[in-house]
Amino acid sequence: MRLSAERRSGISEQAYGWISNIQRFSLHDGPGIRSIIFFKGCQMRCAWCANPEGQTAEQDVFFHADRCLHCGNCADLCPTGLHSMNQNVHVLERDRRCVGCQLCEERCPAAALNIVGEHVSAQNAFERVMADEIWFRQSGGGVTLSGGEVAMQPEFARVLIEQLKAEDIHTAIETAGYASWHAIHQATAGCDLILYDLKSAEDALHTRFTGVSNKTILRNLARLLQGGQQIIIRIPVIPHFNDAPDQADKLLALISALTQGKKNFQGVELLPYHLFGTGKYKLLNMEYDWNRGSANVDNFLCMAHHYRLPLKVSGTLAG
Ligand code: SF4
Ligand code: SF4
């Protein structure tokens, strides 16, 4: 088989964006075997967010405090004073900006530091994911753009998708929908599948626990449903937020009304809450205070039957 990686000639347009990670061999977030490109930057602040490193737009410093030898190498090297020493104890000044020089990570003898966040060209990201092209083709998989919020960097997303589509690679975008219509449209216009997160039908509850109103999100979803792209609506099922019977009922009733007669609507996917992201809060010196037990998906399963909505339960959680 001749792989398209051999005939790549570069993108006619160039765009740059911030990413936190490229995860290979994922079996979630779209069909087949996939690579997930995690974009940085998000305006929402969901109380249970599993990807806190995706909230900020640029670099973050993961600090493994338990490994630190307090040698002072990082404090000597850091050009911005983000690392310093106070009476022979290493101190992180989180209000100072990291410029991503990587010096501290490279010279730390204890591997106590990781710089999270890369500013990359679309060409660079494209070439990295295309290393797994053979797996995409053999499994019916492809590439998913996730975050953070992809629509915060719509031009980067658009160019990346254009390049992947030129090589006939399946593309999906995971979005929470909180951006201008122009940005959502620009980011998603060329992709094959949109994974659209909805969290609550109640605006006051949504605002309290995500930091933003759901009005823009619902408006953007309604417009996307007018188009021809396949859409799966994904619900992070969060204990003490949206998993009670009345909340499940309201959200699925809303989805039922929005998707009535829409041929591009592919169904609902539940993403049960988990605690996999909590270690990252510690590395960022952030508090995680949503330890609320496990999510109850049964109320959604029951209501989905009532509203005749196709629904499946996934093993992963969106932010
Ligand atoms: S990457 Fe550079 S700027 Fe950022 S914390 Fe390390 S030494 Fe400082
Ligand atoms: S270089 Fe590493 S071990 Fe030394 S003070 Fe900095 S974080 Fe700690």
UniProtKB/TrEMBL annotation:
**What Pfam family is a match for this entry?**
Radical_SAM
Q: Which SUPFAM superfamilies match?
A: 4Fe-4S ferredoxins, Radical SAM enzymes
Q: What is a single molecular function from GO for this protein?
A: oxidoreductase activity
What sequence ranges are listed for the domain Radical SAM core?
28-312
This enzyme's EC code(s): 1.97.1.-
InterPro entries, sorted: 4Fe4S_Fe-S-bd, 4Fe4S_Fe_S_CS, BssD/PflA/YjjW, Organic_radical-activating, Organic_radical_activase, Radical_activat_CS, rSAM, rSAM_sf
| Source organism, top-level taxon | Bacteria
What range(s) does the 4Fe-4S ferredoxin-type domain occupy? 59-87, 88-118
| Keyword annotations | 4Fe-4S, Iron, Iron-sulfur, Metal-binding, Oxidoreductase, S-adenosyl-L-methionine
Which family, according to the similarity comment? Belongs to the organic radical-activating enzymes family.
Per its record, how is this protein called by name?
Answer: Glycyl-radical enzyme activating protein
Provide the species name.
Enterobacter intestinihominis
